[in-house]
UniProtKB/TrEMBL annotation, chains A, B:
Molecular function as annotated in GO: homoserine dehydrogenase activity; NADP binding
Active site: residue positions: 228 (proton donor)
Record-stated family: Belongs to the homoserine dehydrogenase family.
The Aspartate/homoserine dehydrogenase NAD-binding domain, residue ranges: 11-141
Protein's recorded name: Homoserine dehydrogenase
Native organism: Monosiga brevicollis
Known cofactor(s): a metal cation
GO biological process: methionine biosynthetic process; threonine biosynthetic process
Domain Homoserine dehydrogenase catalytic positions: 160-355
Enzyme class name: oxidoreductase
List of residues binding NADPH: 103, 127
Binding site for L-homoserine: 213
């Protein structure tokens, strides 16, 4: 008899719905291997929520309904006032249930912290709550709740970066430095620069392929990579804040406030500068990569020349990579490499986190 | 107030004592980060055991005592009869305590299975018990005990191979094939072949440096790699047995039964054949690596030509690597690379496993 784990899904976009779908698809293997059954109890979007079991069973219909531009508040079985939503959510915030944050907001951080304090598990694909102040991070990951909060997919999609660094920390091994690339989108763009293509051409292609955020500056600003670097640094035990991250974006302040269409029209202004950097790097047998580097004192995030033959230099496609240098991994680093983008792989990381919490913390 | 976890250490060699030392060194970080304190309650070797708290506190003295060729049975505070040892161990086989197997025997498998069934955690650096029959593996890792048995250091020292594959399996992702190198010793030897050195020279050097087992055939037979491949295959969910592993050793049957000294004297007989394989590989821009490959139908382990520019071909030193190809990691594999040998890194993997069990399973 499989143990039932209630699931509350915040965020009803591509990742959220892929998590729901994957849980349905894995039902047999989760029951057989872990004696677990995940039961979806709620989906919450920015304006409403669904708690009706019959409606929740048909994820395809929910996806279609959302695709048509609707909020769950408008759904026939939807709940729309925040009071009603809170009332339905309250009994779910308890041991044996897992709240999954697939949003891109930090407005629900209070709700999630309360849920974890009341015994629920919380899994984040979202980076926002984890990159608030250090004391909030501690509330989520400190000794009282250790093991009930997981967030693999907040960094590097589902590749086990967080899991690997967590193990190094658990072994009491002192990490000196971590280094890596944490953006599938910027990986695609910098690998394209290797082939002599222009930045503007690559950004427009990435935009058209849907690799970038709706506003490509959300990728090109480096803020997404900066948040990921901060999360990994905190897992190393370094009490850093966002203000300790030196972020060098790929576009100047003059392009910050124009519309997306204007930005895409004007990004060619950057081509000459990037091409010059690329050429200088090539002379040293290097390529440009958007690299994050972190140590106990802070993080730096920006475009860097790296040796063409190094693991980071050899990256192509949307793969991400992480190198961990520590007391024990001293002569050569611990290296993790895997696909850094895509709803499937992000959802897989979320589901692995859910299984680990359920196996670990809900007897 | 830190939660106390009792520790029973089987095996009193380099790895076992390094685990004990690491637990002492990590005491402050384990208390602060996880609210945990590991208390060593027993060390057991092949002929005796120590349960005396004062004696156990001085690991340096125990190391010296063992170094002089003594068994714990001969220790002033030692316990020597198996009845006495069993009587002391019985109350420790319960929830809140962890048994750690740093031996190279399968004689204690019954004891360890009983401990896990009675609620204790079990951590293996040893491969023997995990490569018994599939039903024993199921008893150790099935749904009733999931999360109380961990064995990262049985494969690839402490690099998170098992953790990574476990996460892929937990996400319900279907693994099609895993491939890698799982022996620091054979990595050292094959990387040396790249430089035109002879097999015999490299084996003698690895032996002199203490990289090989006391009988280097234990490495060169491929059995160690075969066991590691089988363990990872089982984590993928494939119900394989040792008889499903095709193991191609590096020496012929005619050298199986001679003494170690005779083996080292005669290993030059193999040089010409290996040099010919190396030369053929080089013509295809390949190098020789001792590769393990596994799929749902079985495992193959042996010396193979691999492209010089591939991640496995680029390996040097004692690093190990694992590639995971699955439904989700389809266009490029998930890759983990890290040092594959050494007591420090092996002990670190054991300690990370202990923390994860303690955080997860002992409320």
């Amino acid at each position: 008899m499989a143990k039932s784990i209630g699931v509350v899904l915040f965020g009803c976009g591509n990742v959220g719905l892929t998590v729901g779908k994957r849980l349905q698809d894995c039902a047999a293997s989760h029951a057989k291997r872990y004696g677990l059954r995940f039961d979806l109890r709620a989906i919450v979007d920015s304006r409403g929520a669904l708690f009706d079991a019959e409606a929740l069973a048909n994820l395809g219909a929910i996806a279609d309904f959302k695709q048509q531009g609707n909020s769950l508040a408008q759904h026939a079985q939807g709940v729309s006032t925040s009071e009603d939503i809170a009332q339905h959510l309250e009994p779910l915030a308890s041991s044996g249930n897992i709240f999954v944050d697939c949003t891109a907001t930090d407005r629900i951080s209070g709700q999630l912290i309360e849920a974890i304090q009341r015994g629920a598990g919380v899994v984040f694909a979202n980076k926002k709550v984890l990159t608030g102040d250090w004391s909030t991070f501690q509330q989520l990951t400190g000794p009282d709740v250790t093991g009930r909060c997981r967030f693999e997919s907040s960094v590097g999609a589902g590749s086990p970066f967080v899991a690997a660094v967590s193990r190094v920390a658990a072994a009491g091994d002192a990490v000196h430095r971590i280094q890596g690339t944490f953006s599938g989108t910027l990986g695609f763009i910098t690998a394209g620069l290797d082939k002599g293509r222009s930045l503007s051409e690559l950004v427009r292609e990435a935009y058209d392929l849907g690799y970038t955020e709706p506003d490509p500056r959300d990728d090109l600003s480096g803020m997404d990579v900066a948040r990921k670097a901060l999360i990994l640094a905190r897992v190393c035990g370094w009490s850093l804040e966002m203000s300790d991250v030196d972020v060098q974006g790929l576009y100047p302040a003059s392009l910050s406030d124009v519309s997306v269409a204007d930005f895409l029209a004007r990004i060619g202004e950057l081509d000459a500068d990037i091409a010059a950097q690329q050429e200088a790097a090539a002379k040293e047998d290097c390529v440009l990569r958007y690299v994050a580097e972190a140590g106990p004192q802070g993080c730096q995030v920006g475009l860097r020349p790296v040796p063409r033959s190094s693991p980071i230099g050899a990256l192509s496609g949307t793969d991400n990579i992480l190198n961990v240098h520590s007391d024990i991994y001293s002569s050569t680093p611990l290296v993790i490499q895997g696909s850094g983008a895509g709803a499937d792989i992000t959802a897989a990381g979320v589901v692995a986190d859910m299984v680990e919490i359920a196996v670990a913390r809900f007897p």
